[in-house]
Design a protein that fits this description.
mainly beta, four-stranded antiparallel sheet, 35% strand
């Protein structure tokens, strides 16, 4: 699986400042209404029961038992300006469940999985919980809301979304990059509209989150580097590790924390991508790429191969910045 980030803007190194502004169009605290559906927060003791078309999700939150009945959605729809994205009907009383059980889950491995079942019709149901509202740019959470784990429910048939991830360099090797593409059932995953800060609107669009481990700029442990949407049409993304101004581009930052942040290069990267509609979230974890060595033929070959892969996706916004390399 794979995913990639914010597009590079210009084709010359002089355009980097402009790219930094675009890359700063981060997404923070956005309810995933266009992806595997948000059910609750800080849930424990999660359990699913399913029948023909219904799921009863039980969990504890804030010391109380919650029961949520979900039905009416599977997989995802192709982005459309007139047809809404697939979305569950939810009943937070839990009433109306017609009985069922939980056959052992036989689907593929998923990140952040807390409960899953095979449905009697051959479909799959899954509950995933991960820290979506972590602040970008490696900040340590300073509010309780930022520390919450969001519980999401998905329902699908067949394969899960496919996340393809690669790493390379941009602007002559000056900066490291993670790039990728999100596909589902052979089609690219993307939205039709976003706000000026990159928040998806209109029911379509999937968010991608990149976390970094032991980044020198942030300190030990996992930190949220950034979040963004896949590109319209291609489902691709490309994220350059630059320094960012937390006071611009819609970032949330602690009071008084106005110094530039990053770059968040680290030892390991972790990417989580929302599945479209009510398809599950998918992820990738990999060792970070090192600095570019223009004297190393393997580095030069990797850069050429990465550019060829991005070009094959038809994502022109991710091909800028690949000039200036030694041939």
């Amino acid at each position: 699986m794979s995913t990639s980030k914010i597009s590079r803007c210009g084709s010359r190194a002089s355009s980097i400042a402009g790219c930094l502004f675009v890359a700063a169009a981060a997404v923070i605290f956005v309810p995933p209404a266009s992806a595997s559906q948000l059910i609750g927060r800080d849930a424990t003791h999660v359990r699913i029961q399913v029948n023909q078309g219904q799921a009863l999700l039980s969990y504890r939150s804030n010391g109380a038992l919650r029961r949520v009945l979900a039905w009416g959605a599977v997989n995802a729809r192709v982005p459309s300006a007139t047809v809404p994205q697939a979305k569950f009907h939810l009943n937070y009383t839990g009433f109306g469940f017609n009985g069922g059980g939980c056959a052992p889950y036989t689907g593929p491995s998923l990140p952040w999985l807390v409960a899953a079942c095979d449905g009697p019709d051959g479909s799959f149901w899954a509950a995933q919980s991960f820290p979506q509202p972590l602040p970008d740019l490696g900040f340590t959470p300073w509010t309780s809301a930022q520390r919450m784990r969001w519980l999401e429910l998905s329902h699908w048939t067949g394969p899960v979304p496919q996340l393809t991830i690669g790493q390379d360099w941009v602007y002559g090797g000056r900066f490291r990059e993670v790039y990728g593409r999100l596909m589902f059932l052979g089609l690219p995953v993307y939205g039709l509209h976003t706000t000026r800060y990159g928040v998806p609107v209109g029911g379509y669009g999937s968010l991608v989150y990149i976390d970094v481990l032991d980044a020198r700029a942030y300190g030990p442990g996992w930190r949220r580097e950034n979040s963004f949407v896949t590109h319209k049409g291609s489902g691709g993304f490309c994220y350059g590790f630059y320094r960012f101004d937390p006071t611009t581009g819609g970032y949330h930052h602690p009071p008084g924390a106005t110094a530039r942040r990053g770059p968040g290069v680290a030892t390991v990267y972790r990417i989580t991508a929302h599945g479209p509609g009510v398809a599950p979230d998918v992820g990738w974890t990999g060792t970070a790429l090192g600095p570019y060595d223009r004297s190393d033929p393997q580095d030069r070959q990797l850069e050429q191969e990465s550019l060829a892969q991005i070009t094959s996706w038809g994502d022109r916004s991710c091909t800028a910045g690949h000039s200036g390399f030694a041939s």
